[in-house]
Design goal:
Layout: H1 2-14, H2 22-39, H3 45-60, H4 78-87, H5 90-102, H6 106-110, H7 114-120, H8 123-134, H9 139-146, H10 153-162, H11 166-181, H12 183-193, H13 197-200, H14 212-229, H15 234-249, H16 253-276, H17 281-284, H18 287-317, H19 336-348, H20 355-379
Helix pairs in contact: 2-3, 3-11, 3-16, 4-16, 5-10, 5-15, 5-16, 7-18, 7-20, 8-9, 8-18, 9-10, 10-11, 10-20, 11-18, 12-18, 12-19, 14-15, 15-16, 19-20
Length: about 375
C-alpha cells in the first residue's frame, strides 16, 4: 500500500503545479490575453497566436527551451532549436524574403517622395535610442531596443542577435510584435491629434502607372545602392529585394508562390513560437522588461508622429495635394499601417481612398528600418 501511495505522490509532484512560480502563472495569463486578442479581436493572429502559444508552453514546461548542456541526455528542448534560427538571423531574413514576394513596390516607385515619409517615421527609433541610454542601457542594448520604433519584429530580432543582445531578444521581440498587432489602436489617436479634419479629407491624385521594367529594376538598384553604402544590411534588404524580384520578374512563379505562401507561413510558425518561448517568467518579469515595453511604446508613438508631421509639411509645400495621414504609414508594419491610414481618412470622408498612396511610405519604412539597423551595426563595428 505504501508503494502505491509513494507512486501516486511522485506522479502528483511531477505535474507542473508543484514546479511553477507565481510569475509563471502570470505569464500564462498574459498568453491567454494575447490569444484572446488574436482570436476574438483579430489583432494580427498570424503573429500573436504562435507567440502566445510559445509563451504558454515555456511557462508550463520550461525545459522546452532548455540548452543541450542542461539536459542529461545532451539534447535541448524543441523550441531551443527554433530559437537558434532567430539568433543566427536566419528566420528574420527569410521573413523579409516573404514580405518582398508579397508586396507591390509600385506605389513607392510612382511616388519617390514616399521615401522621405518612410525616413521621417524612423524618428521613434532614434528617440528611443537616446532614452534607453538615459535609462541605463548600454549602447548596443539601446540600439536593439530602439528598433521597436520601426514596428518591425524581424528587424528587431535580427539586430538584437547581431549586437549580442540575446538576453533581451524575447522582451524586444514580444514588444515589437505586440505593438505591430496594436497598430489600429495606437496610431489613430496620434494621427487625429496632429491633423485637422480638413487635412484628413484631402484627396490625392491617382498615382501614375509603373512599368514592368521599373518594377524589375527597382529591387536590383536598391540592393546595389543600399548594400554598397551599408553592407551589413544585405541579409535583410537583399532578401526583401530578392523576394520582390521573384514577384516582378514574372519568370519564377513557383518561387514567388513558395516564398509568399508555404515558406512564409512555416517561418512565421517557427519564429513566433520561439519568440514566445523566450518569455519565461524568469527572463521576462524584471525591471528591464518594463523599460523595454515602455520605450517601445514611446518609440512607436514618435515614429507615427514623425511621419505625420513631415506629411503636414509636405501638404503645405504641395499646396494641399498630400494627405498627412499617409505619413503615419512610414512605420514598417506592412500593410497594417497603410490600412490604418486608409481607415482614418475614410472616417473623415468615406469617398477618400488613401491605401495605395499610404503603401509607398509603408514600403519605404521597411527599407528605412533595415537601414537604421545597418547603421547601428556599422556604428558598433558588427
Amino acid at each position: 500500500m505504501s508503494n502505491v501511495a509513494e507512486t501516486l505522490s511522485n506522479l502528483i509532484h511531477q505535474t507542473a503545479f508543484f514546479n511553477l512560480t507565481w510569475g509563471n502563472y502570470l505569464m500564462i495569463a498574459v498568453a491567454c490575453v494575447f490569444l484572446f486578442l488574436a482570436i476574438k479581436k483579430g489583432f494580427e493572429p498570424l503573429l500573436l497566436v504562435p507567440i502566445a502559444f510559445g509563451m504558454l508552453l515555456v511557462n508550463i514546461y520550461p525545459d522546452i527551451m532548455a540548452h543541450p548542456e542542461d539536459m542529461s541526455n545532451g539534447v535541448g528542448g524543441l523550441l531551443h532549436y527554433f530559437y537558434l534560427l532567430d539568433e543566427w538571423s536566419i528566420l528574420p531574413s527569410l521573413i523579409f524574403m516573404g514580405v518582398g514576394a508579397m508586396t507591390d513596390f509600385g506605389p513607392l516607385i510612382a511616388n519617390p517622395k514616399s521615401f522621405l515619409l518612410g525616413a521621417a517615421a524612423q524618428l521613434g527609433i532614434y528617440v528611443a535610442y537616446f532614452l534607453a541610454i538615459i535609462l541605463g542601457f548600454n549602447g548596443k542594448a539601446a540600439a536593439a531596443i530602439s528598433i521597436i520604433g520601426g514596428a518591425d519584429g524581424p528587424t528587431s530580432i535580427f539586430l538584437a542577435g547581431k549586437l549580442g543582445q540575446t538576453a533581451l531578444m524575447g522582451p524586444i521581440a514580444v514588444a515589437a510584435y505586440s505593438y505591430m498587432s496594436l497598430v489600429p489602436i495606437i496610431q489613430p489617436p496620434i494621427m487625429k491629434m496632429f491633423t485637422t479634419e480638413k487635412e484628413r479629407k484631402i484627396k490625392m491624385d491617382q498615382l501614375r502607372p509603373v512599368s514592368k521594367l521599373e518594377k524589375i529594376l527597382f529591387p536590383i538598384v536598391i540592393t546595389i545602392v543600399v548594400c554598397l553604402i551599408l553592407p551589413t544590411t544585405a541579409p535583410l534588404v537583399g532578401m526583401l529585394m530578392l523576394g520582390n524580384l521573384f514577384r516582378e520578374s514574372g519568370v519564377v512563379k513557383q518561387l514567388t508562390e513558395t516564398a509568399s505562401n508555404a515558406m512564409m507561413y512555416i517561418v512565421v510558425i517557427l519564429l513566433g513560437t520561439s519568440v514566445g518561448a523566450s518569455t519565461s517568467a524568469e527572463a521576462f518579469l524584471n525591471l528591464d522588461t518594463l523599460k523595454i515595453v515602455a520605450l517601445g511604446l514611446v518609440a512607436f508613438a514618435f515614429g507615427t508622429f514623425g511621419g505625420v508631421m513631415l506629411g503636414k509639411l509636405m501638404c503645405k509645400l504641395s499646396g494641399g495635394k498630400i494627405n498627412p495621414l499617409i505619413g503615419s504609414a512610414g512605420v514598417s508594419a506592412v500593410p497594417m499601417a497603410a490600412r490604418v491610414s486608409q481607415k482614418v481618412g475614410a472616417e473623415a470622408d468615406p469617398t477618400n481612398f488613401l491605401l495605395m498612396h499610404a503603401m509607398g511610405p509603408n514600403v519605404a519604412g521597411v527599407i528605412g528600418t533595415a537601414v537604421a539597423a545597418g547603421t547601428f551595426m556599422a556604428i558598433f563595428g558588427v
